[in-house]
Amino acid sequence: MRRHLSPLLTWGLVVLVVLGVGCGQGGVSAGATVSVYVAAPLCEEARRELKTAGEGAQGVMVHAICLAPVQRDRRVRLAVAGSNARRATEDSTSVAFLESPGPAAGFSRRIVESADIAWVETSSAAPVVRRVLHAVADADDSSLRDAVRESLG
Hints:
Layout: H1 7-22, E1 33-38, H2 40-52, E2 56-57, E3 60-66, E4 71-72, E5 75-76, H3 78-89, E6 94-99, H4 109-113, E7 118-121, H5 125-138, H6 144-152
Parallel strand pairs: 1-3, 1-6, 6-7
Antiparallel strand pairs: 2-3, 4-5
Helix pairs in contact: 2-5, 5-6
């Protein structure tokens, strides 16, 4: 017994095939945006470095997203550290997470790295941001997240 596909189902399959052919070819599109999540004490420096560099590389915009402060009144707020890490993992544009040294440093590491996002503990954001920009510029057809993680690893 021979079955025929309905015209609507046939049209849907054609659309999926056409869309699928274009996916994954040619790497990242010009005009794409990636995000670097930055601990509060490092954020101003990271933004300044991005502005100096033109806020991107090879047509890919790089944004610094400032995280909530983990310390308040000399107290470490681990719930905030966890929330910051989860925020980065839920963002599909996230390529790196910059943590400043301190009592909460490392708390977010497992959460962030489980999402294959580069995690870096640093007291200076500028050199790390420059490395992110170089990784974005040098990325081939692979994932920018992977390229940045390998560059910072």
